[in-house]
Amino acid sequence: MNLRIVPLVQILQVNEWLVRKSGEDLSAMDFTRRMDDGRGNPRGNSYAWIFGHIVDARYLLARIIGLEVESPYTELFARGTPHPDASVLPPQAEIEQHWKQISTQLIDRLGELTDTDLDADSGRDFPNRDRTVIGGLSFLCLHESYHTGQLGYLRVLLGHPPVVR
């Protein structure tokens, strides 16, 4: 594996573990529940939406590093999309299946990348202002870590023990 991305791959691997642990023992209701603003108005995103969004972002990362894959969730979980009714959210097992599938493909492909691959233009603009593949990888690792933390926090708000004690 290219030494330039070893720390980023480690972040993705730790996130895999954190996401898996944060989803343990959630009921279907926990999975789709949105917290409210204290007056009964749903606010924020459900665990399902955040998890689906993370999976969708891993598909984007996979495409940036050359995998020809399409996310099944882009329309449902893309940035800025409104939170849908709980009845249209995929079940936890389905999202987990896509998570495992894209994660395996992603880690395998990351192990093949050369310096030339990492320095290539990603074709995208990222908030870190680095259009290279490694710049996109760096930003998307940060993005995923941010949302992984949200899942852990949401887990506690839902009444479950924290992932890391």
Task: Please tell me about this protein's structure.
There is one protein chain. The chain has 165 residues and is mainly alpha-helical. Helix content is 56%, strand content 0%.
State mean pLDDT (0 to 100 scale).
Answer: 96
Biggest sheet statistics:
none
Report the CATH C-level class. Answer: Mainly Alpha
Give the CATH H-level superfamily.
Answer: dinb family like domain
Question: How many distinct domains?
Answer: 1
Defining key terms:
165 residues; mainly alpha; Four Helix Bundle (Hemerythrin (Met), subunit A)
Quick summary:
With 165 residues, the protein is mostly helical. It is 56% helix and 0% strand.
Ordered list of secondary-structure elements with their pairings:
Layout: H1 6-22, H2 28-32, H3 47-64, H4 74-77, H5 92-110, H6 115-119, H7 133-157
